[in-house]
Amino acid sequence: MTRTLEILEEALEEAEEAARWYAERSETAAVAFAEDEAVFRARGQTVMVVPRRLVPAITRLITRQKSEMLRKRRKKTLQLPSRGARKSKP
């Protein structure tokens, strides 16, 4: 009888350890799922599946596009108003 109790206690300990392990993993999985969900719902963005061999070219294209946008934005902010526009303000 004592041996049976030992076996049951060991089995219970193993089951509790397994439950803790899965609980920790499920929390991590929940966080990862929430992050993925947020990406899919981001406004102005999309998620695509593309062949791996195209990823470098797509990355270069995105980088080039961002650089052009930044240059245009800087150019706009650096432009001073014309002399006529400055004099005509009260």
Supply database-style keywords.
mainly alpha; 90 residues; elongated; single chain
Helix percent band: over 70%
Give me the strand/helix succession: HHH
Give the overall shape. elongated
Strand-residue proportion: under 5%
Secondary structure elements and their pairing?
Blueprint: H1 2-41, H2 55-78, H3 83-88
Word description of this protein:
The protein folds into 2 domains: 1-47; 48-80. It is mainly alpha-helical and 90 residues long. It contains 3 helices and no strands. The protein is 78% helix and 0% strand. The mean pLDDT is 81.
What is the structure about, briefly put?
With 90 residues, this protein is mainly alpha-helical. Helix content is 78%, strand content 0%.
